[in-house]
Design a protein that fits this description.
Layout lengths: L8 E4 L5 H12 L3 E6 L3 H13 L3 E6 L5 H12 L6 E4 L14 H29 L2 E6 L2 H5 L5 H21 L4 E8 L5 H6 L2 H7 L8 H11 L11 E4 L5
Parallel strand pairs: 1-2, 1-4, 2-3, 4-5, 5-6, 6-7
Length: 245
């Protein structure tokens, strides 16, 4: 039996981080050719590509600045030279936390540029070629902060909340052409970033499951949503949070 995503090309933005790396490996394991995006750590992208190749998968490195209109457009045009990209995982995001009265304009705009405007820059030019194939999967990585809020993250919650709304609206536009659009809202997921913000006692107090999630658990949902089996699921924001709200 052929792998379920054989012949599909999948872009994962922010692939150099823990979550993006796990998602990329999951999609590669399902047979997709994975296009790995990153910006600040190209060496991590290359290492991930080598890991995927060693496991028998196929990956390409596409380092570019998701906040730059011209650079993003050029990169996406280059990807399309290899054919339509039928799976897009908008995982790139950034934190720049501050309580709202002390938040600087650069902190507000910087977070929105990556999480929200980056989604537009990458996804919009890929949609029409995707529609022509009459099959596609767009998966936006949101956050529990967009659903429940979080002190010090008004900028992040705003960006991810807008991404949730965009997910629902875009799903209505694309559903009749075989393209689904969904969002995943992770809670506390084990990563270097989470380790600096939450100690074990705090996690036990906040999360009913009393542990952090793993990147692989989020990647499992992304893999399912990208699969042919998920063709009747669209416009949803699905939490992976151990019961945290």
């Amino acid at each position: 039996m052929n792998p379920p995503l054989q012949g599909k090309r999948a872009l994962v933005t922010g692939a150099s981080g823990a979550l993006g790396s796990a998602i990329a490996q999951r999609l590669a394991g399902a047979g997709a050719t994975v296009l790995l995006h990153g910006h600040s750590r190209p060496e991590a992208l290359q290492a991930l590509a080598e890991t995927i190749h060693a496991a028998g998968g196929t990956a390409e490195c596409w380092p570019f600045d998701i906040t730059n209109d011209a650079g993003c457009a050029a990169a996406v045009a280059g990807m399309l030279q290899g054919g339509p990209v039928q799976i897009v995982v908008n995982n790139a995001g950034t934190h720049d936390d501050a309580v709202f009265p002390g938040m600087k304009p650069a902190q507000w705009h910087g977070v929105i540029e990556v999480s929200l405007h980056g989604f537009f820059r990458v996804t919009q030019p890929l949609v029409l070629p995707m529609l022509r194939t009459r099959w596609g999967r767009i998966i936006n990585v949101s956050s529990v902060a967009a659903l429940a809020g979080n002190r010090g993250q008004v900028n992040y919650a705003a960006a991810k909340g807008a991404l949730n709304s965009a997910t629902k609206a875009l799903s209505l536009e694309l559903a009749s052409r075989g393209v689904t659009v969904n969002a995943i809202a992770p809670g506390i997921i084990a990563s270097p970033m989470a380790a600096t913000a939450f100690d074990a006692d705090t996690i036990k107090r906040l999360v009913p499951c009393q542990r952090a999630g793993t990147p692989e658990e989020v990647a499992a949902l992304a893999g399912f949503l990208a699969s042919p089996e998920a063709g009747y699921i669209t416009g949803q924001v699905i939490s992976v949070n151990g019961g945290l709200y």
